[in-house]
Design goal:
Strand order of the largest sheet: 3-2-4-5-1-6-7
Helix content: 25-40%
CATH architecture: 3-Layer(aba) Sandwich
Low-confidence stretches: none
Mean pLDDT: 91
Radius of gyration: 15 Å
Number of domains: 1
Distance between the termini: 11 Å
Number of strands: 7
CATH superfamily: P-loop containing nucleotide triphosphate hydrolases
Largest sheet: 7 strands, mixed
Structural class: alpha/beta
Order of helices and strands: EHEHEEHHEHEE
CATH topology: Rossmann fold
CATH class: Alpha Beta
């Protein structure tokens, strides 16, 4: 089962996604793929907040790029939360400080997600960055277009899709 959860910054999307996965997973089958890296004090604080919120039942995998490397480690009984696609996409697109081919990153990301099709539940969390005007710089615009394309394809193939605002999830698909 593929589930997509989106929302703005601090909307409650991660908390909702964690509850969704925890309600389905059996003990020992609860996994969290963390894509963020500590880059400054604010990110360190956000990562710590997310870690504190999860109970000891979670197995955490730190994977800021190349998510596909993890796919063989999971079984059909596993429930996985990827938090978040927004950061993973940025890490892949701007890897090594150089803008990568958006088409290649798109194909890599979609291929990687498909490798998790055998798990019991795969929940992908992503930020909704599309309510403001588009950015002026080329790199940010490319990133937003790539993320928008990824969102559309993931939701197209997802079993369920949710939009979270103010901590309130709204089912958009499923």
């Amino acid at each position: 089962m593929l589930v997509f959860v989106s929302g703005g910054a601090r909307s409650g999307k991660s908390t909702f996604a964690e509850q969704l996965v925890a309600n389905v997973a059996a003990p020992g089958n609860l996994h969290y793929i963390a894509t963020s890296e500590v880059t400054d004090a604010e990110m360190k604080s956000r990562i710590f907040h997310h870690q504190e919120r999860r109970t000891g039942d979670w197995t955490t995998w730190e994977q800021p790029t190349n998510m596909i490397e993890l796919a063989p480690k999971f079984s059909t009984d596993d429930c996985i939360l990827l938090d978040c696609l927004t950061i993973l996409t940025a890490n892949e697109l701007f890897h090594g400080g150089v803008i990568q081919s958006a088409n290649k990153v798109y194909e890599k990301m979609i291929h990687s997600i498909k490798q998790f099709h055998t798990v019991k539940m795969f929940v992908i969390v992503s930020n909704d960055l599309f309510s403001d005007k588009l950015p002026d710089d080329e790199g940010s615009l490319l990133y937003m277009k790539l993320l928008g394309s990824l969102h559309q394809e993931i939701v197209r193939t997802a079993d369920y899709a949710y939009q979270v605002n103010y901590g309130i999830p709204k089912k958009m698909k499923g």
